[in-house]
Design a protein that fits this description.
Elements lengths: L7 E4 L9 H17 L2 E6 L9 H14 L4 E6 L4 H13 L3 E4 L3 H11 L4 E2 L2 E2 L10 H9 L5 E4 L1 H8 L3 E4 L3 E4 L9 E3 L7 H11 L4 E5 L5 H12 L5 E5 L19 H6 L4 H7 L8
Parallel strand pairs: 1-2, 2-3, 11-12
Antiparallel strand pairs: 4-7, 5-6, 7-10, 8-9
Helix pairs in contact: 3-7, 7-8
Bound molecules: glutamic acid.
């Protein structure tokens, strides 16, 4: 008998602050979907940005999730311990001549855009004008040898030509045509960190065999890039389920930088897990 492939979900917070009600919503969404689908639930700590992430926040994530009654499968994948996996993916893209070093500073990019008189925007902000793509190969190497810091960008045009049209499926939105071109030449390895969110998340979901990605609608657009990277790196294609976001009384989306209600603050104020899960919109949650 052929056994059906297990469904694997994950919750993937960044330890750059304490979890707040928005995270509770996302974690509970993943946990309830896992219950419904009889799926496995994994946890991943997205800590590649070592300037913003802290071990104390990571420990607080485990504590807060346990307090909410959320259980996950061990081991937890900690991104900063897997830089070699991202390096391998970059090498794979480099072998296909899809990457180029970008030495530009933010200021230089802005100046170049200003000079061109056009300022095309993508979902992530201004689209990179492609300045460094024009640097001849020999000069690129020279600059690298001289120690100029550089990011690695994906040659979007070449990548799309290689893959042809791509599609992905979101449980709520249905079949979507991928439009990664809207982002321009995205950074896949930052100057200060040898990977990026887009690359690390795509590689990890494949390595962890996540086939049902639950995450907020704020990351809906990013999926266009992830779908492209999957095609270029020959990785399996999951299903996505982008969930709604929760907003505060003023209509602002809850985020760490907005001092959103931290779960531990609610706890200190005497709220119990049942009350907090209800506040997050999961009145009937039971672990
Ligand atoms: N680490 C991301 C965040 O905390 C989530 C990444 C993802 O689910 O793809 O917003």
């Amino acid at each position: 008998m052929i056994s059906a492939q297990p469904i694997i979900l994950r919750f993937a917070p960044s330890p750059s602050g304490y979890l707040h009600l928005g995270h509770a919503y996302s974690a509970l969404f993943s946990a309830t979907q896992a219950q419904k689908l009889k799926a496995r639930l994994l946890l991943r700590i997205e800590d590649i940005d070592t300037t913003r992430c802290r071990k104390s926040f990571e420990d607080a994530i485990y504590e807060d999730l346990r307090w909410l009654g959320i259980k996950w499968e061990e081991p937890v994948r900690i991104q900063s311990q897997h830089m070699n996996d991202y390096k391998k993916a970059l090498d794979q893209l480099d072998e296909q001549h899809l990457l180029y070093p970008c030495f530009c500073t933010r200021k230089e990019i802005q100046a170049e855009i200003k000079q061109s008189g056009k300022a095309p925007h993508g979902p992530d902000g201004l689209i990179y004008p492609g300045t460094c793509k024009k640097i001849p190969l020999g000069q690129r190497q020279e600059k690298i040898d001289q120690g100029h810091p550089y990011a690695l960008r994906l040659d979007m045009k070449k990548s799309i030509e290689l893959t042809g049209p791509l599609y992905w499926r979101d449980v709520s939105a249905g079949q979507i045509k991928a439009t990664p071109e809207d982002f321009g030449d995205v950074v896949l390895a930052r100057k200060d960190i040898a990977t990026s969110y887009h690359l690390a998340v795509t590689v990890d979901d494949a390595l962890q065999e996540v086939n049902y990605i639950t995450r907020g609608k704020d990351l809906f657009e990013a999926t266009h890039i992830h779908r492209l990277l999957q095609a270029l790196l020959v990785l399996p294609v999951p299903t996505w389920h982008h969930h709604n976001l929760i907003y505060d009384d003023t209509g602002t989306r809850l985020a760490k930088r907005h001092n959103a209600l931290a779960l531990r603050e609610l706890r200190e104020r005497g709220q119990n897990p049942k009350q907090v899960t209800a506040m997050a919109g999961f009145k009937n949650w039971s672990p």
